[in-house]
Amino acid sequence: MNNYLNFKIVGSGPSGLLLAISLAKLNFNIYITDLLTREKLINKDKTYAITHSTRKILSKFNLWSKLKSYLYKFDSLSISDSVTSDFTILTTSDLDKDICSLDTIGWVVKHSDLMNVFFDEVDNVDNIFFKSSLDLSFNDIKFDFEFVSTGANPNHKKNRNFIDIRKSYNQSCLTFEVLVRGNVPRRAYEIFRKEGPLALLPLDKNKYQIIWTATTSKSMDRLNSSKSFLLDNLSTILPDNFKLDQINSDINIFPVSLSFRLPIFNFKKVVFVGDSFHTFHPVGGQGLNTCWRDVNVIYDIFNRNFPVSNRALNIFKYKYYFIRCLDIISTIVVTDSLIQFFANNKFFLLPFRKFSFLLLNKFIFMRRIILNHMTKSLIYSSIK
């Protein structure tokens, strides 16, 4: 592999850093830029659900063992419908045989822990260079290719000849950490409600990360209310066994959107990665996992003796988008369908919602289908 090629990555979040780490293993020179400082990039109060497909990807890049001590396992998942009062519990016995021995449905990791591990890896690699976007020293470097990983609303998209497909849910997520009593250890929760889903991701001991989706106006009202009012409000919609003690962190708000960016035919050597390429509703926790599958495909294309030339780099761009489309579209369809089906109070849908839980509780193969899509993805078997 040629080591004289210079690749620029714009955006130093989890996707941009993993892309830098992976491509550096192929001996490219990697230059990462971001508007934020390293401290601000690390210190964000967010939490991610990690799936088995992501475990394989992180293991592939020798990061899983370094991250393992920061992960929180969950071995059961409660899915409930607050309108019909139906629920089901998915457990490790519903997993496929090839992963059930790991005794976990998935893992939870804090953003700060993840970023610290990634930045430590970046610091130990000689051919990765991190600079603030305000640092002009990169201006003298001729880049052979550029990767944009600047989040859901990248400024680059306005002048990069991309078709931007977008759907607004008019929803936002509140996220914060709570201390609870009466919880079932190592159990995650997804509660479907009329205003949007509520997810609870287990952290250390009796701590949970709340991901609370509602209309943007209602989310803003809750954000601006007192913590005691927010606790009282949240207590009314949590499972009966939960007893809330306190909010342990700052309360953050994030917009919810569905987007998919496809390139118009052009010869610019630029591709979008992660949230700059696609976003989904957070239901099911697929966001970051899907972003990292982008990185895996990029690495695999370059790793298979890809002929690095101007013409080949243009071909790479369209090969990457073509490979990723099926996985991304299927995730869009599933997440959007779940919201349309469960996040409403439409009377004619209620019998179908009750019937879906009846099927899940009666047939293990139905639960296995759900867990397979959530934890393994369409490309699981192709991740080496």
UniProtKB/TrEMBL annotation:
The protein's name: Possible 2-octaprenyl-6-methoxyphenol 4-monoxygenase UbiH
Keywords: Oxidoreductase
The protein's Enzyme Commission number: 1.14.13.-
Signal peptide: none
Pfam families: FAD_binding_3
EC category: oxidoreductase
Taxonomic superkingdom: Bacteria
